[in-house]
Design brief:
Chain lengths: 114, 111
């Protein structure tokens, strides 16, 4: 069974440029998460989807970050414009749904903003 | 959710048991203890979770004290591939939907 797929794995951009990350969760997983992980820190939740609905986006910086999961399957996280402080690893995870006890993580996208 | 306290780093010799402690003294009665680990350049991986009884699976054992204020993750025979950051997380829902990661314990397994 394929795991959570993320692309790209690495991205280097100039500040003020836009960037997008893509995630394809494990087939059949209704819940999708986006996390940001700064160097030396644990992952921080940005947004959680239950199918197409964003049920927890309280930590998403909405002035520059946006996310979508239009058909309840894959998802895109966008930053526009990027700032130097956005350099981090962006992780996507999925789980079966409500009551599930395990999140499955992808390998992440390492973003460097110059 | 209750906060957790873990040592920043630990060493363990290959083949020996690795015992990773976690303090969660403010845990509530309905909060579960989860353990995840993150190998370098990979996403976190679920290891085990429990409420109050000790738990064991193919990866590890979880020992929760009777007062539930602390727990220990045990890797019975550590290998070099167990070198990773181990996160102890307390979750109010008992499901995977709300996990708040701290900084974890960096376990280094050596020859």
């Amino acid at each position: 069974e394929a795991g959570v797929v993320q692309s790209p794995r690495y991205k280097i951009i100039e500040k003020k440029q836009p960037v997008a990350f893509w995630c394809n969760p494990i087939s059949g997983h209704n819940t999708l998460y986006w996390y940001r992980q700064n160097l030396g820190q644990g992952p921080e939740l940005l947004i959680r989807y239950e199918n197409e609905e964003a049920v927890d986006d309280s930590q998403l910086p909405k002035d520059r970050f946006s996310a979508e999961r239009l058909k309840g399957v894959d998802s895109t996280l966008k930053i526009q414009p990027a700032e130097l402080g956005d350099s981090a690893v962006y992780l996507c995870a999925s789980s079966l749904g409500r009551g599930s006890t395990e999140q499955f993580f992808g390998p992440g996208t390492r973003l460097t903003v110059l | 959710d209750a906060k957790t306290t873990q040592p920043p780093s630990m060493d363990c010799a290959e083949g020996r048991a690795a015992n990773l402690p976690c303090n969660h003294s403010t845990i509530s009665g309905n909060e579960y203890v989860y353990w995840y680990r993150q190998i370098h350049s990979q996403g976190p991986q679920y290891i085990i979770h429990g409420l109050k009884n000790n738990e064991t699976n193919e990866m590890a054992s979880l020992i929760i004290t009777e007062d539930r204020k602390s727990s220990t993750l045990i890797l019975p025979h550590a290998t070099l591939r167990d070198t990773a950051v181990y996160y102890c997380i307390v979750s109010v829902t008992g499901t995977a939907s709300k996990l708040t990661f701290g900084t974890g314990t960096r376990l280094q397994v050596t020859l």
